[in-house]
């Protein structure tokens, strides 16, 4: 059993591949082995999460996910705990494995009750797994809400019930004041939906057990790439080795966004950072950061530079985009630049032509910006974030960084997309996106492949938030930029 962290390197498999892996594993083992292993693993994690528990409420559903729950109940009963099972299903229609486990729970003396106990020390959600096909209703929906309303921990079996394991979309309505710490023990494969969209909040800390069936020839749907390796700088290096970044943005009233991106690029190790402000009345120097070279955006020669374009650009960014798209050696497009491109077919064609000319581009949309670029709604994007990122990457010939809970990085399709596990709600404050764009710019300026540059910068950006000390002042975008590591 393995705890998944932001440093974990692992492949993620969709439901269809998981089913094939399960079938192959089941065929190679005596009947009922997988479910017995799954139930035992649930019982072990339950004991680790709540070692002093007495009452353990196990809510079991109508399929094999419920079977895992029955099996766990039998194991916990044997170990002196008090499991109480509520079953939302029809015994006669249970799949054979689950029916055998139900019988084992009865034989062990487990209590079956029509309603949840009055209180519990741990709740185990074994209602639905990868077989969920429609929104939860009736008793199952009620039980899930009750679990999440209590302060006792919730352990989800395989997948939090109602969560689409492929996409992270969820039909379960979270309890408004949800208190319960969450754990999820997933079997045979890690699934992408646990790590993006609603998945991260629904699953909490994810644990993985391969049930003794490691190794598969299936193609992964996505990857957890883990922490980037440190890239030590050679002693005999100079600023020219680390590239020039030119931030272009900062229309009147929005200079701060461009300066934040510039600060981030500087602290992330770019050799030189220019800031081309679109505000004609902008100051000639930023006295707080005199290392930033402030210029007129139109005067910058981008042919040897990595441009970071869009931060605080407003509508004025439209006028400079044709030249930026045509001349920048490498490019990060953010915010208003993405909105301008979404509204303009000629700019879209120019963007797509960069890939044909071998010029790397990274785009960093949040879901609404992605929706504008894909001509759909933000809800459509959130319904399948992996697909949306892949579509953006292939339509525009770019590396797409789709921001949000479980940021997705998709490239040209030669490798699966990556899901990033660093970051938290501390980043939900103005300017943090500008900082990310600047960090990606600095990584790109070192000539790293665009996919790797984006992946590393996204990981490091989130890691700053994850390691921000409790009790320290709030993580403002300015503080984030100053922490940007190379
Ligand atoms: N067969 C085995 O030996 C193993 C099974 N495993 C478990 O089996 C699960 C998959 O089992 P299943 O394919 O039976 O799928 P589920 O247990 O997720 O549920 C499928 C059943 O629920 C019904 N259903 C779907 N959505 C519903 C809803 N919203 N309301 C009410 N009923 C709904 C379906 O009609 C079907 O009867 C995995 O997630 C995992 O927990 C794993 O433990 C590996 C071993
Ligand atoms: K479940």
TrEMBL record:
Provide the YjeF N-terminal domain boundaries.
18-219
Gene3D superfamilies in UniProt: 3.40.1190.20, YjeF N-terminal domain (3.40.50.10260)
Q: Which GO terms describe its biological process?
A: metabolite repair; nicotinamide nucleotide metabolic process
Q: Where, by residue number, does (6S)-NADPHX bind?
A: 64-68, 129-135, 158, 257, 312, 366, 434
> What is this enzyme's EC?
4.2.1.136, 5.1.99.6
Where does this protein hold AMP? 403-407, 433
Matching Pfam families: Carb_kinase, YjeF_N
A GO molecular-function descriptor: ADP-dependent NAD(P)H-hydrate dehydratase activity
Give the family this protein belongs to, as stated in its UniProt record. Answer: Belongs to the NnrE/AIBP family. Belongs to the NnrD/CARKD family.
User: What name does the UniProt record give this protein?
Assistant: Bifunctional NAD(P)H-hydrate repair enzyme
| Record organism | Variovorax paradoxus
Q: Which gene encodes it?
A: nnr
